[in-house]
Fold this protein.
Amino acid sequence: MTPLEVIAVACAVAGSAVFAVGALGLVRLRDFYARLHGISISAALGTALLLLGLLLWFPSPANALKIGLALLVQLATAAVGGNALARAGYLDRTPVTADTRRDDLAAADPERHGSGN
């Protein structure tokens, strides 16, 4: 194996490990919001590492363009999707863990918390 192939395999294994940690977090974290944050972060980093490993394994300008576009689309849609899911959970009054100390959105929607005019 060439050094480039070794780095490619290391990136692929690291990306897979990040996905595994995200899956573990999905099971272990306490509430919807923590789970959503953990899986969103691991999905973005895991995908980036896997795509980097793929590019290193098959290096070419055409593959660089394709993988770069795939990474750009994935990172953009993951951020928007995670935000949309968090907002939907908040609007549906998904319960939070008792360790949650503050709610920054409560000031924007006082009726939700019974302190409206």
